[in-house]
Write a structure and sequence with these properties.
The structure is a homodimer. Chain A contains 14 helices and 17 strands. By secondary structure, chain A is α/β, with parallel strands linked by helices. The first copy, chain A, has a 6-stranded mixed β-sheet with strand order 2-1-3-8-7-6, with helices on both faces.
């Protein structure tokens, strides 16, 4: 079974935004054993859309479109699919009712152009969109399949990875391509590759490294008649990778570093609090992205200015006037303050200079101190990160999580 | 003049890496006044490559390929272009000499498969590649142009933005396409479109809306002989849009809502502090993403658990035991606590239930209270957001920024 992906949107075509949905969709197709043979990006132009869809349908068994399902005049995908399939659009009363309800709950004024989102080609089935107004579509006509997905990320991702993935698994039936991703922190990509290069020679499963911001993912992919058989091929490879990489593997598939770390704390019945300066809440934001984190994460102090370091965390005047807010001493006092004043087993502090300029000329851009207060005492380390302001901030949060996890592992 | 971009590479097609080169190339084409009408991604397959190139050349004046110029068997672009143009490859002695020299300097063993990188179609001119072994190509034949660029980022970027950009400017001879983006908050996409639909009928400049998470961007694009002339066409349209949308336009081009809001505070000499529960630091993280934010943003309290709402912000036991942490009363006390205890002109609080489940069964998932403490008193509002945990959290931070900005505007 072959598929082509058609991304619709002038802003994509002109390079104003990067298309991450088509790669996501290609990976889901591959997982389901469907070969993606071509991806096309076109603008919001009805004639070109219809020609592209017809062209794709003449080659492939299936076409997946991304974007252009919204309410505005630019949103032409639904109409284009109907034309390409020689089908007609019909208004679906249940969809209209749902739309009107969303508008009323959100207290947004209803305009009739929204009705377009309540239509579908007669050969199509609407896919529920719990995160937005535009439903997705699955059309089966004349032996071909057209699937339409909305463009906004929070709508696209759950729909592609949920109902569409299940549909694809069902229509595909036979061989599956199944992957498992091992997530690694604290080791660079080339070092990981050097350690596992022997396993990268295999063909089923294959092992491939992907560099992520401040971590490495190893993707193990097997082809088999079923997901269970693929898993049976992957299991021994995972075992060998774990022998080589040990506790550097912090999680599998979608487990984030913050989720893995919080889970370790939860198992130990311990709690963590944060004291953030340059990251301004980013570390807390990551920890609270995990559902149920309130069992383990008590909270934090965003002490972005000097007076708050004193009033919220008890950093002394001597430290603030002496070594200053970006110093080993300040990171130490912030971590202690977070642990003691906020009431946690561990206090994690981050203070540094994220740039673009040095406030006082004495701390280089990228210099960050990390404090880790534990029941046994406080440790402080420093690193100088390179990059833009938000790179430095993000790397700081990653470093803090790696170090907290190391501590829990007794390293 | 029209162009299509063809990205070549199985790893791109399967979504294993994200294609950022095609967007870069599309922006360069637009800068030079060349319309990019389609982008295609195909794998390392000669038959499909030739068919795709011929197809693209039948429609467009120019085709730009990215990737597949290296020495391995997978690198088929050079051969594919020769076939598609009915041309022949020839070995270029100077290219061979340069290649052999690179290998000798780098002390890498020469293998004859490298000779492929010293060939070019007879109709083509090689583009020097100071950062790698594979030269680029510009072919002009039968009134069509084919440009081939290498895939590695450090080779692609300087070649695309250097010799290729200069070549495009020369063949195009003048016209530029220039855009300005007006950023709007607090109004939905379809309402914005309804308000400005008359201006969306224009052809030069064009006006097009783009929905972003919780905001709308209006992109005004003009074609003219120079950037200055394009700006002169855009200016009166911006003026009319500002008359219609008023202060809902918070910024232009890259200005974020957090940057615009902080700038308003800075001009007034006022400061803001945050008290975050469900967002866990996200609002603080956004505010501190702006360079120089410490002049205006004092800090915040991440009171993720109930005891910290009391100890850091002074929320009373009566409120926490009565209406509870997700309540109008708690949002009010949190905002007051942030303003008074952290020492700011404005205190912004967010408390709510981000899901996936309701902690106590009484607060629905997505219910969020926003408190805004000002010198004149405290206001509290509530909204119920739909979506995943992080959507609800992100929308909450956006809502807080919109409401703070409204307050500064006297609304």
């Amino acid at each position: 079974m072959t598929a082509e992906i058609v991304s619709v949107g002038t802003e994509l075509l002109l390079g104003q935004i990067i298309d991450t949905h088509a790669p996501t969709m290609a990976r889901i197709l591959a997982d389901c054993g469907i070969s993606c043979t071509r991806r096309v990006t076109i603008g919001d132009n009805m004639e070109r859309l219809v020609a592209t869809l017809r062209d794709a349908l003449s080659r492939a068994d299936m076409v997946v479109t991304v974007g252009g399902l919204g309410p505005t005049q630019d949103d032409i995908t639904r109409d284009g699919i109907a034309v390409a399939l020689d089908d007609e659009l019909e208004l679906v009363p249940e969809l209209e009712e749902r739309l009107r309800e969303i508008f009323s709950v959100r207290k947004i004024k209803w305009v009739d152009s929204n009705l377009r989102q309540a239509t579908k080609p007669k050969s199509g089935t609407a896919i529920d969109n719990p995160n937005g107004t535009a439903p997705g579509l699955i059309c089966e006509k004349d032996g071909k399949i057209v699937i339409a997905l909305p463009g906004p990320k929070n709508e696209f991702n759950p729909m592609a990875d949920g109902p569409v993935r299940r549909y694809l698994e069902r229509v595909q039936g036979g061989q599956v391509i199944h992957s498992r991703t091992l997530r690694i922190c604290g080791i660079g990509e080339s070092a990981v590759e050097e350690m596992v290069k022997e396993l990268m020679q295999g063909s089923n499963p294959t092992v491939a490294p992907y560099a992520q911001p401040a971590e490495v993912h190893l993707r193990v992919t097997a082809r088999a008649a079923s997901r269970a058989e693929a898993d049976a091929l992957i299991d021994p490879v995972e075992e060998r990778l774990r022998t080589i990489l040990g506790s550097a593997i912090y999680g599998v598939n979608d487990t984030t570093l913050e989720a893995a770390t919080l889970e370790m704390l939860r198992e130990r019945g311990e709690k963590v609090a944060v004291a953030e300066s340059l990251t301004g809440g980013w570390l807390g934001m990551r920890l609270t992205s995990v559902a149920g984190s309130s069992e383990v994460f008590v909270g934090g102090a965003i002490t972005y200015t000097i007076p708050l370091k004193e009033s919220l965390l008890g950093v002394s005047k001597e430290i603030l006037d002496g070594p200053g807010p970006v110093s080993e001493e300040c990171a130490r006092a912030m971590a202690e303050g977070a642990r003691d004043r906020l009431g946690a087993t561990y206090g994690v502090s981050l203070t540094g200079n994220a740039g673009p300029t040095s406030d006082d000329g004495s701390t280089p851009v990228g210099l960050v101190y990390l404090g880790l207060a534990t029941p046994e005492g406080v440790e402080v380390e420093s690193v100088t990160f390179r990059g833009q302001r938000d790179d430095i901030r993000q790397r700081s949060t990653q470093w803090a999580l790696v170090k907290l996890r190391d501590k829990l592992l007794g390293r």
